[in-house]
Amino acid sequence: MGIEFFTRLPLHGETEYLAGDPRNRGDWSKVDGVENTGAVSNYDVGDDFSYIDYLSQIARAAEINGFGGALMVNAPTGEEPWTVCSLLARETKKLNYVTAFQPYHFSPFNAVQSAATYQRATGNRLVWNIINGGSEVLQQQIGDSIPHDERYDRASEFLDVVKGFWANDSFHYKGKYYSAEGGGLKHPLNKAQLPIICTAGSSIAAREFAAKHADYYLMRAERPDEIAELIADMRQRAAKYGRENIKFGMSVDTIARRTEQEALDEAQRFLDEAAEKQRLNIGAAHAGLRSARMLSFENEYSEKKGSTNVHDFFIHKNVWSGFGYIGIPPGVALVGSYDQIIERVKEYNDIGIDLFFLAGYPHLEEAYRLGEYVLPYFKAQREALHPLIASKQYDIAL
Q1: 288 Cβ partners below 8 Å, 6+ apart?
Q2: Cα-flanking dihedrals φ and ψ of residue 188, to 5°?
Q3: pTM attached to this predicted model
Q4: Can you tell me whether residue 236 is helix, strand or coil?
Q5: 344-369 b/e (C-beta count within 10 Å ≥ 16 → b)
Q6: I want to staple 340 with a disulfide (CB 3.0 to 4.6 A). Which of 14, 201, 312, 336 is the partner?
Q7: Coil vs helix vs strand at 100
Q8: Mind giving me the DSSP string for 52-92?
Q9: Is the dihedral of CA 295, 285, 302, 325 positive or negative?
Q10: What would the pLDDT profile of 248-291 be if each residue is shown by its tens digit?
């Protein structure tokens, strides 16, 4: 089956150390009386080099090392994804950029016009990740008071209108959240291709939205049997809409090293730092901010009782949930030698994952490790695929 690899850009600072550490790259650390030492960690507006320059290094390293694209997470504390991908697209040749945004952020026509302009300038290298917020508290902080399930209803209308504008130069629509009276994408903007549409979310509302609209349904890593169960559920839901081509992606960190012991030592270093800074089981402290479903391994954190033993957090061979325990999203990492990472990727691919978002810490160095020792194994399998583009019927060529 198909396989493709994207990486992830850290839009809210590097994480070689835990968030807020002055040794990290980027200017997200602000500790009174402590000097930042990471690259561009003392940036002031107007300086010659900014954090965007570091992100550019990662993007170029990803492309040099054979990644097909880069995911950018949208968080209130980070750089804005669409702006970043627009800046970086001209610094790379073929790298696709996955920009995460909420329908709340744009009107449908603004999203269409902006995307068409981007696609024309970059050769159709934009991918959309439609998100709808996993925290009621954070949604209200940014001014969005619509309840959880209704946000998915709004998102469904949003994409109905987007697709209508894209396919017609005179589109009419009347819905609960949006309407259109003859607008549409006209020549020459309509030469561009509609971005591939990705989305995530494990609630029933999120799954139904993805089943109707998503080219790729994205998941966080769990045990393989749990991923297989979710894939089966999503295929069944998509079939109700006559959609047989839905694909699946998974976001998972990596600690890939020459030997398993080297990888274990690095994972242990993170746990030890978290214990020193009293950040073990940090997710429990933020439980009130989150409305998204807890994954099975997250429900097991309470049983760890402050453990700092790296082996206590393996939920499957080489699949380590320790990052989630200390507050580093997406929470799970493949930990092991290069050969072991390859085996786990093959295992998840065999159960239906087509698109892997792989990243590690620091992102720049891990892009080279993965590109030099993991991705080459899959070269022939990747070359046999069609380009990762969306068709006019909003299906995936992959």
Answers
A1: 137
A2: -95, 0
A3: 0.93
A4: helix
A5: bbebbbeebbbbbbbbbbbbbebbeb
A6: 336
A7: strand
A8: HHHHHHHHHHHHHTT--EEEE---TTS--HHHHHHHHHTT-
A9: positive
A10: 999 999 999 999 999 999 999 999 999 999 999 876 545 544 55
Residues 201, 197, 80, 173, Cα dihedral to 10° = -100
Q: Which residues of the chain have pLDDT under 50?
A: 285, 288-289, 389-398
48 φ/ψ angles, rounded to the nearest 5 degrees: -65, -35
List phi, psi (to 5°) of 307: -60, 145
Here the tokens at position 218 are 């994205």
> Side chain identity at 50, as an amino acid letter?
S
| First-last CA distance in the chain | 10
In this structure, which CATH number among 3.40.50.2000, 1.20.1560.10, 3.20.20.30, 3.30.70.3040 belongs to the domain 4-248+360-383? 3.20.20.30
363 Cβ contact partners less than 8 Å away, ≥ 6 residues apart: 7, 8, 9, 10, 14, 58
- Please answer whether residues 378 and 3 qualify as being in contact, where contact means their C-beta atoms are separated by less than 8 angstroms: yes
